[in-house]
Amino acid sequence: ALPRDLEGRRVVVSAGGTAEPLDPVRTLGNRSSGRQGYALARVAAQRGAHVTLVAGSTADLAPPAAVDLVRVRTTEEMRTAVLDAGKGAEVVVMAAAVADFRPLDVAGFKIKKTDAEPEAIRLTRNPDILRELVAEQVPGRLVVGFAAETGDAEHDVLSFGRAKLARKGCDLLVVNAVGAGGDGRHSAFEGSDNEGWLLGADGSSTPLPMGSKAALAARVWDAVGARLS
Ligand code: C5P
């Protein structure tokens, strides 16, 4: 039987990618499938938590049973939904692939193809939701970040992760060792398996062996559960 160590805990999980409009019909987005975030939400609900799943663009996934699903598109929408649901939560896990930049100007009408050279798209920085969560300094609330890193040397991936944990200020960071498949197809994004390390702000580092995204989710919740007061 599954542990019920998250019984009654309120948790928020973000999943999938954000997509930023360029005009009414086009967006800039990414290939996140949302599978890892969905697995985290499903496992937390199975272990007794009240889960709000804030989902951006995803593959065609069945929503986990017994979670509150909030669908968002842009980073700004995800920010509002996560900060809002995060107010009453004891744990927030940012598994979403949030777009770092968005187009500075959003055309009100579909951008037309002409014989002239296309204009360059100017970008502006998006808010960093994870850092905003950490900056809120809610006492007792755990904030978990994700980092997808490429790099064959284990050492590099871990030191990138350690630096990111310090920069973001979160309590735990899941470092995803995504394969360097240039077309993205052989990476952890779209597959059903995942591996990496779980780094703690206390300096701890736990390997997350290759396995299903549900298995990785279970290990993340084990670590979170052990840290909840
Ligand atoms: O900075 P980087 O994108 O590598 O960090 C990844 C972590 O930060 C993930 O947990 C992601 O959900 C979160 N993030 C965020 N807002 C952003 C960019 C990333 O919350 N604008």
UniProtKB/TrEMBL annotation:
Function noted in UniProt = Catalyzes two steps in the biosynthesis of coenzyme A. In the first step cysteine is conjugated to 4'-phosphopantothenate to form 4-phosphopantothenoylcysteine, in the latter compound is decarboxylated to form 4'-phosphopantotheine. Catalyzes two sequential steps in the biosynthesis of coenzyme A. In the first step cysteine is conjugated to 4'-phosphopantothenate to form 4-phosphopantothenoylcysteine. In the second step the latter compound is decarboxylated to form 4'-phosphopantotheine.
List the source organism. Actinomycetospora atypica
Q: Which domain of life is it from?
A: Bacteria
Q: Which UniProt keywords apply?
A: Decarboxylase, Flavoprotein, FMN, Ligase, Lyase, Magnesium, Metal-binding, Multifunctional enzyme
Q: What's the cofactor?
A: Mg(2+); FMN
Record-level Gene Ontology MF annotations: phosphopantothenate--cysteine ligase activity; phosphopantothenoylcysteine decarboxylase activity
Q: Which reaction does it catalyse?
A: N-[(R)-4-phosphopantothenoyl]-L-cysteine + H(+) = (R)-4'-phosphopantetheine + CO2; (R)-4'-phosphopantothenate + L-cysteine + CTP = N-[(R)-4-phosphopantothenoyl]-L-cysteine + CMP + diphosphate + H(+)
Q: Does the keyword Ligase apply?
A: yes
Q: Which residues form the DNA/pantothenate metabolism flavoprotein C-terminal domain?
A: 6-224
Q: Return the similarity comment.
A: In the N-terminal section; belongs to the HFCD (homo-oligomeric flavin containing Cys decarboxylase) superfamily.
Cofactor note, please? Binds 1 FMN per subunit.
Q: What is this protein called?
A: Coenzyme A biosynthesis bifunctional protein CoaBC
Q: In which pathway does it act?
A: Cofactor biosynthesis; coenzyme A biosynthesis; CoA from (R)-pantothenate: step 2/5; Cofactor biosynthesis; coenzyme A biosynthesis; CoA from (R)-pantothenate: step 3/5
The record's EC number reads 4.1.1.36, 6.3.2.5
Q: Where does CTP bind?
A: D100, K110, P127, D128, I129, L130, F146, K164, K168
Q: Where is this region: Phosphopantothenate--cysteine ligase?
A: 11-229
